[in-house]
Amino acid sequence: MSHLPSILHPAGIEAARISQLWWTMFWICTAVWIAVAVAALIAIRRGHRAAAVHVPDRTIVRNVATAAAISIVALIALLSQSVLIGRALNTLRSDDALRINVTANQWWWDIQYDNPVPSLRVTTANEIHIPVGKPVAFNLFSNDVIHSLWIPNLQGKIDLVPGRRNELWLQADKAGVYRGQCAEYCGLQHAKMALVVVADPPDQFEYWLAANRASAPAPVTPEQQRGKDIVEKGPCAMCHAITGTLAGGRSAPDLTHIASRSTLGAAAIPNMHGYLAGWVSDPQGIKPGNRMPPPGLSGEELQAVLAYLETLK
Amino acid sequence: MSAPQKRARDEEKRPRVVEDDARLSRQAQERQRLELERTWANGRGFIAWLAETDHKVIGRRFIVTAFGYFTLGGILAALMRIQLAKPENTFLGPDLYNQIFTMHGTTMMFLFAVPVVLAMGVYLVPLMIGARGIAFPRMLAYGYWMFLFGGMFLYLMFFFNVGPDNGWFSYPPLAGPEYGYGKRADVWAQLITFTEVSGLVVATCLVVTIFKLRTPGMSLNRMPLFVWAMLIVSFMVIFAMPSIVISSTCLILDRLVSTHFFNQAEGGDPILWQHLFWFFGHPEVYIIFLPALGMMSEVIATFSRRSVFGYTEMILSMTATAFIGFGVWVHHMFATGLPQLGQSFFTAASIMIVIPTAIQIFNWIATIWTARRLQITVPFLYMASFFFVFIIGGLTGVMLASVPLDRQVHDTYFVVAHFHYVLIGGSTFPLLGGIYFWFPKMYGRMLDDRLGRISFWLLFAGFNLTFFPMHLLGLGGMPRRVYTYPAAMGWQGMNLLASVGAATIAVSLLVYLVNVVVSLRRGAVAGENPWGAATLEWATSSPPPSYNFSPQPTVASSEPLWHSELAPPPLVGLATDRREVLVTFLLDAEPDHRYEMPGPSLWPLLTAITTSIMFVWSIFNPWGVVWGSIPIFVTLTGWFWPTEKKERIKHGIHGRMRPSETLP
């Protein structure tokens, strides 16, 4: 099932720890706010009414000092809680965890499941599948500007900085679909640079991984064949790759299993026939400024391309 | 010189009570006043208007100009709220929206918040310390013109669709040569240069004024808290600005002549920019905040009819804030992947900075608690709202200091809510209260009480309605700086609420503006001291004359107008046929020497024009720096051309005072 993004509805251990920290802070801060607001109100009422009731300076000094001391104790409590949770967030690390390379581009995510055997690598885009209950590490890179990967229900964000490698560790404890989003302003279409994280039970995840190692299925109908020809020989292959075909571009999302993904345009729109048709014929209308030029297909060519793309499960 | 002799000489120099000094007779005073009027007058006409160097006129222009930019920034905010009122809105496209949020942030930080608080200092500080004028008045005028031209340049470029669109923080590589297309990022970086020049100039004027022009008797420990705040803030400006000078210059160089300061492919580092920017950017928050605290202290003391409790602690707290403020910048960068141990130190510092502010808040509450008949006036309402509004921002600030929590809410609407609570609650509310409080001094008329209350409560309600829901949006996963959002996220309700709140804020500010415009013509005449305040700016007519005081008062307490029985006789003996001021010693404000202030001049304006030409030229062509410097050199030469009359030099007007010349 699909979850609304929220840091208060954690679906993984890391987000749960942070949410627990949030509630500690929330209650302490609320108490402080109420205390100060009440003190200010009483002071205003008293000051307004009382005609110079003398309060000795020593009493005031004592009260101010007490309030300051309480604040310091509360702040130290918050600081230690924060540092402890920060340390706890580091305990997920392990050597044999699943590692996924996430490379940010303006304005989409390139996802690669690494493997020492090149043929076992899986490349996809804008949709990350992870097994439930297992720690996962994201190796984070950027090809252009600074981005930030944030999946609120699972973990805090971390930036993807060009020329550096950052790591994000997380673990999903509940199966489901979680939305992630770029959280560092990265230019024109920063708003529509999202992604989907699918947490599957481990066996289902393994199945997905195996299915995605396969090359693209061969076209069956003549229309699909025609679609494949257009993709391979037309403008699509300049940027996109479809494993097992002549399309080998590397500067746009991999399309080998495009039909199995749930969204298009970095989670800008759902992956359904009408939306796909809209995206292929006029990508600039849906996400103005994105790097995909309108391919200029005729109606018949468009139908063929769609027919082919929809076979790429 | 033997010790007793020296002591005798020092004794001579001290301001003394000379009850029967002929120079204090009424006729003599009147003669003196008329002569001061002639000496300090600025001519009439447009040219004289341009040549103005009176700190009160420049201060007012500064404030009015800053509020002009505030209005523009506010209109941009309203456009954003219209766009975000519903999901998938097409009112603004991404390109325009990104320019607008960048312009909004840049305007509010660089063209409103900092200039307006400094401008309040420019207007008030010389009056509060009993000085005839501000130090380096021509340089001050230059600072004003640079500020005006910088803002005009930014908005001109924005109307030509070359408005910056990389956020008010302009992170490379997005703002660098490869991804920041056209001239948009250059416009931003060069605007920063304009405001740097202006800010540094004003801060220098204020520091020197506070240190050297205080009237006799106003030792450091008798300075009003607002003056202390301005002193501390001016030093912060002087220490924080160089960092942004370096970073914006490096950015321009990267873009203009292909240096690679921030290009990781050539050995540069994009994270370096963030360190440099936030090393300036975080102190900037306190630069905006501390003067507001100074205003709070003045207003609360006035209406509580007692001095602020814990004067020394207040000063130490502000100083501590200023120091710690330079050690917290990394909390803007917790998501960049810095090592954890280092981050913990910045968490600790960011939490520690709460303590001095908390102490000030407790002291204010104690002051109000022990008030002698507290008057709940409109300015007091603005200051009191600080306790309810700012504190929410302060507490969410503590949350953001925590690395794990910050990694969740960083760059979301939670942060947007946080810093609007801090900046509007901690600075704009006190500022609007301060304007209401000092308006009678500036323009001689009172603002209307009823309109004032309506405006305040509308602002209070509208502000909370706009920004409180943003906390929830952030917790619900809405990132900042998005031009639209999908309907399925469940964010539309809170966004609509925020937009309604923004409309309320607009109405409230409109009421405030109407109040100002109406009161300028029809407000009750204020008189010298309408609020019964204690500090020296209320010891002269409203609005004050160009020479501020006649005669110049001296003081023997920190609330001179409340302890008039202690008031020492005023200062006499300074020449009135030229703009002579008394320079005093730093700690105890004992007379040091006489100094002749420069008068009105067109050179600051001309120099500002040539500097602006060079700044703008240089973003289009590196040779602009070379050729554009020549006119600057010419105007500066004109400015500094010696005009001192020989005779005056002979009389040693800048010399140390001889004992025979002591002032009474």
Task: Characterise this structure.
- The complex is a heterodimer of chains A (313) and B (664).
- The model of chain A has no long low-confidence stretch (mean pLDDT 93).
- Chain A is α+β, with helices and mostly antiparallel strands and 313 residues long.
- In chain A, strands 3-2-1-5-8 form a five-stranded mixed beta sheet. In chain A, strands 4-10-9-6-7 form a five-stranded mixed beta sheet.
- In chain A, a hairpin with a 3-residue loop joins strand 6 and strand 7 (155-160).
- Chain A has a domain at 222-309: Immunoglobulin-like, CATH 2.60.40.
- Chain A contains seven helices and twelve strands.
- In chain B, strands 1-2 form a two-stranded antiparallel ribbon.
- Chain B has helices at residues 3-13, 26-40, 46-50, 55-84, 94-128, 137-159, 184-212, 225-257, 270-304, 311-324, 340-352, 354-369, 378-401, 403-409, 413-443, 449-475, 492-522, 603-620, 623-640, 646-650; strands at 580-584, 591-596.
- Chain B has a domain at 25-309 and 531-618: Cytochrome C Oxidase, Chain A (Up-down Bundle), CATH 1.20.210.
- Chain B is mostly helical.
- In chain B, strand 1 (580-584) and strand 2 form a beta hairpin.
- The radius of gyration of chain B is 26 Å and the shape is globular.
- In chain B, helix 7 packs antiparallel against helix 8 (225-257), helix 9 crosses helix 15 (413-443) and helix 15 runs antiparallel to helix 16.
- Chain B is built from 20 helices and two strands.
- Chains A and B meet through helix 1, helix 2, strand 7 and strand 9 of A and helix 5, helix 9, helix 11, helix 12 and helix 13 of B.
